[in-house]
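Checklist before submission:
- one chain only
- standard amino acids only
- sequence pasted in full

Submission:
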Amino acid sequence: MELNEIVITKAIIDRFSQKFMEYTEVDVAIVGSGPAGLVAAWFLAKAGKKVAIFERKLSIGGGMWGGGMMFNEIVVQEEGKEILDLFGIKTREYEPGYYTADSVEAVTTICSHAVKAGARVFNCMSVEDVIIREGRVTGLVITWSPVEMAGLHVDPLSIFAEHIIDATGHDTEVLRVIERKADIVLNTETGSILGERSMWADKAERLTIENTKEICPGVFVTGMAANAAFGGPRMGPVFGGMLLSGKKVAELITSEEGSPFEETPEDFDTWFSKNKVVFESELLAEKYFITEPEDTVSIGIGSGLFDERLGIKYGVEPTEGMAALARKRGVNVKIGTAENVPYEDEKFGTVLLGTVLSYVKDRKKAVSEAYRILKHNGHVVVSFLAREGSYAMMYDLAYIRRSHDPETAPKDPYPIKFIEETNWCSTREVTDLLKDAGFVDLKYIQTLTRHPKYTNDEVEEPTEGYDRGDYIVVQGRKP
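Returned file contents:
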């Protein structure tokens, strides 16, 4: 067969145009194709998300290609090796806890897996602006990188994205556009990009993961961009944190979507307005241990309904919908999870985990984070609906049946859509978690001692112990 140059040209233009048209609207747009961005793309595409990666360079891989100073080997720790193992990338132990891998094999293999999973890479494209709607970033404004480099005055095109990930590394390119042009405050201590600090490999590896989060409505940061945004140090040619950061940002996006706490946050408050007596009883129990609200942070603050009454002014919440309600109540809320709290060590005198342990994936990590941000002799306060109590049993039965039994349930029971998100804690489990984390001098308060059908009849004063109440509050001290 004789090759025809025009057919070749048409094939490239036609097929690229089809691909580009299909990805002008995506679930997730990732800017930057370094290791964190590629790993995120793989996990997200595997989860069924429509993912596009926009890379300003011709090649993908970011800084991983060059290893350390163009010695194309990289180092990962034990946790990072687990990610490489997922892709079948060969590693060799150098010393206990240190593993090396060929950087070219790592980049090409991860990229291949991401593309085969369904992610699409658009290289030689730069982001020159973002699209803003009602305080949320909803899209990217893109142009060809050679056009940008040549300084040509050519109008760009736009991409819609439900979520955007800044994976541009040290330069934090997307965030800098937002900071320069949009009236949006970033979720950092100053509301702006804090900038990258000098190298500290061990600290940077930890902070890379901790700083991976939603930094403003619609935009997440991952990899080195996360550290640069929040003022963390650089880590050099050790890449475990980058890989784990990519995994984490994908989990944050996939876990928050579809949550009723995000989609219908007002319904949470509506339930308490219909069950005011229950609310007041639970509030009294929490208030028993909240003696210095001005030095307290509420983790998993939700709508801030309890915290407003308690006088708490600081909170952490993973869903933007709930956080918005809490901010309207005057609380300074940072977007984050109980497992990765966006505050420095020994920051607060009291940490309130208000029923949040029933909703987190890693309770041990959540309690450990509370311990970390507490001052010495500070207190953690944990409230929960006890798994061994009648409320939890009634709700579990309703979840199985998909309806509440009107003969045994209160007039306005907890919505089943919220029960689906819940994994009840037992008092023994919470006690063990606190002791294992290092907390001492545990004290217990209980309320909701009546049958669930009648707990909304009269406000209860809390009593000591945990042997009768469905709602338990525990206080522990950090030595």
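Reviewer check: The chain has two domains: 21-256, 260-477.
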